[in-house]
């Protein structure tokens, strides 16, 4: 399957469509993939970011170089950062102060009940994440599980995976997809079913996730039983990696949209004035539970962009009056 959000051509198509609709002109430097867009008397330079494979995993880089494997997006500014988007604990403490719903968390394993994930305080693209682990009944902790100095544990919540993109505090794109799951047929193993779902035979299964559901990778899954086989947004079996799952228009006017709008406004208020400049892209990651409540996990600066993000971003830059804070 071809990637969707990592595909440079999908991004180019989105930008060119906006340019045709608004009589804009411009071009792309083939040496760097820097894009210039002119609409009326205004010109904006869009700077690319790329995925690159390194010895320690995937990272974002700002120029074409060996190891580049995909496209992250075009930004109208160099990479930015701000505290709640750079440190997960800083975000958690902000969420607590602001009344933003987030899973229970602690630096002490015995403080969080049930299944927990272990995460690094500073990381991107899920690097270093472990679990979920089922804890012994409090106050006992699992003897084989220890937190490193830069780790914390977080309550594991099942539901739908959420990623919401914002231009400043405006909600622009929303993806909501089910956690990858398989349905038992009484014949195939969990591993076989998961490989079929992900359409690849080298799929690595999260053994701990299966263990807390009472199965092992090579168990035959009984007829009709549903089983979650991954919980991460970047899971190979997440369909939004390969197709457009933007549901922004479908949620307009709903309580769900209201949750996302409020969260975006709270998070944008934490971006320092000196960082805002022309504006900024950010994403909020979360899980939507069975009652439709969003549990926010983290906010990201310089995220991988969804192709549908360019229209609202370029509208805001070129067609709308800039607020004083962005001038």
Explain what the structure shows.
It is a single chain. The chain has 327 residues and is of the alpha+beta class. The protein has four domains: 8-79, no CATH class; 81-101 and 158-180 and 231-301, 2-Layer Sandwich (D-amino Acid Aminotransferase, Chain A, domain 1), CATH 3.30.470.20; 104-156, no CATH class; 183-229, no CATH class. Helices cover 22% and strands 28% of the residues. It has eight helices and 15 strands. The protein has helices at residues 8-21, 83-86, 88-98, 190-198, 207-212, 255-268, 273-276, 310-319, and strands at 25-28, 35-39, 42-54, 57-61, 68-75, 105-106, 115-120, 130-134, 151-155, 160-167, 170-178, 181-183, 226-228, 281-288, 294-301. Strands 1, 2, 3, 4 and 5 form a five-stranded antiparallel sheet that branches. A four-stranded antiparallel sheet has the order 6-9-7-8. Strands 11-10-14-15 form a four-stranded antiparallel sheet. A hairpin with a 2-residue loop joins β3 and β4 (57-61). The longest helix is centred in the first third of the chain and has 14 residues, at 8-21. The radius of gyration is 21 Å and the shape is globular. The termini are far apart. The relative contact order is 0.17. The mean pLDDT is 90.
């Amino acid at each position: 399957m071809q990637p969707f959000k990592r595909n440079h051509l999908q991004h180019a198509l989105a930008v060119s469509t906006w340019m045709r609709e608004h009589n804009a002109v411009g071009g792309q430097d083939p040496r760097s993939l820097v894009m210039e867009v002119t609409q009326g008397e205004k010109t904006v330079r869009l700077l690319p970011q790329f995925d690159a494979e390194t010895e320690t995993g995937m990272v974002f880089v700002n120029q074409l170089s060996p190891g580049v494997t995909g496209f992250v997006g075009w930004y109208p500014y160099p990479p930015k950062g701000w505290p709640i988007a750079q440190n997960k604990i800083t975000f958690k403490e902000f969420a607590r102060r602001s009344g933003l719903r987030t899973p229970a968390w602690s630096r002490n394993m015995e403080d969080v009940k049930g299944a927990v994930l272990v995460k690094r305080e500073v990381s991107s693209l899920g690097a270093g994440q472990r679990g979920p682990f089922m804890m012994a009944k409090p106050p006992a902790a699992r003897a084989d599980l220890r937190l490193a100095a830069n780790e914390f544990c977080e309550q594991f919540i099942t539901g739908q995976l959420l990623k919401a993109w914002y231009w400043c505090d405006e909600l622009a794109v929303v993806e909501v997809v089910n956690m990858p799951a398989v349905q038992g047929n009484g014949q195939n193993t969990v591993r076989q079913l998961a490989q079929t779902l992900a359409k690849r035979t080298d799929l690595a299964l999260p053994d701990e996730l299966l263990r807390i559901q009472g199965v092992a990778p090579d168990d035959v899954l009984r007829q009709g039983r549903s089983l979650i086989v991954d919980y991460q947004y970047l899971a190979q079996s997440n369909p939004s990696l390969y197709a457009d799952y933007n549901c922004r228009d479908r949620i307009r006017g709903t309580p769900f949209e209201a949750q996302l709008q409020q969260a975006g406004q709270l998070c944008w208020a934490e971006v320092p004035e000196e960082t805002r400049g022309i504006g900024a892209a950010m994403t909020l990651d979360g899980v939507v539970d069975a009652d439709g409540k969003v549990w926010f996990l983290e906010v990201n600066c310089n995220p991988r962009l969804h192709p549908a993000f360019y229209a609202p971003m370029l509208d805001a830059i070129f067609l709308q009056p800039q607020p004083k804070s962005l001038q």
